[in-house]
Amino acid sequence: MKRGDDFWSRRRAAVTSEAEAEAKAVLDAGTAEAAADLEERPDDEILAELGLPDPAAMKQGDDFTAFLQAAVPERLRRRALRQLWRSNPVLANVDGLVEYGGDFTDASTVVENLQTAYQVGKGMLKHVEALMAQAEEAAVAEEALPDPADEPVALAEAAPDMPVAPPEAEAEAPPPRRRMQFQFDAEGAVG
């Protein structure tokens, strides 16, 4: 029997988890009561009680971490974070590469007579066809250039000291590689 699989180990673990759940429920109830009390009070009173500055008056370089405490109501935390994002240019200027940054389901934002190269089921067909045509033109232009491999005599004349391989030698496959083999003697030395 493994340790922890007997009845008393399971019972001790269950009692511990029940006690933790009970403590968490009491803490959550106290937090909920405090949050309900803070929701009824105005922001100015809460800020004065907690010793926090007005979030709207804060600027870049100020310490916003005090607003992240559990005692601060959610609405004040959000106000402070909004001000942080507005004041910091790194956080405020989104580069436009956010994939789901816009609401494209809103029909009122659609431009009338919008035309695009995108075709359903075919994608950006004209753009891809134009790229393929450019690639074909480049291939045709490359074929028009003389291939130095076609003229081995000219290469031999240009560099007489370099041997020119016959075309059938190029077609041969290289020999297979040998695998390394190790032999060990009785003392464990590699030979």
Structure report:
By secondary structure, the protein is an all-alpha fold. It has a domain at 9-93. The protein has helices at 7-40, 43-50, 74-87, 89-92, 125-144, 152-158, 167-171. The longest helix has 34 residues, at 7-40. The model has no long low-confidence stretch (mean pLDDT 78).
Which features does this protein show?
mainly alpha, 7 helices
Précis, in short:
It contains 7 helices and no strands. The protein is mostly helical. 2% of the residues are buried.
Topology:
Elements: H1 7-40, H2 43-50, H3 74-87, H4 89-92, H5 125-144, H6 152-158, H7 167-171
Order of helices and strands: HHHHHHH
Low-confidence stretches: none
Any idea what the radius of gyration is? 38 Å
Oligomer: single chain
Give the biggest sheet.
none
Number of helices: 7
Which structural class best describes the helix and strand composition? mainly alpha
Please count the beta strands (DSSP E, at least 2 residues each).
Answer: 0
Strand content: under 5%
> Separation of termini?
50 Å
Shape label = flat
Helix content: 40-55%
Overall pLDDT metric: 78
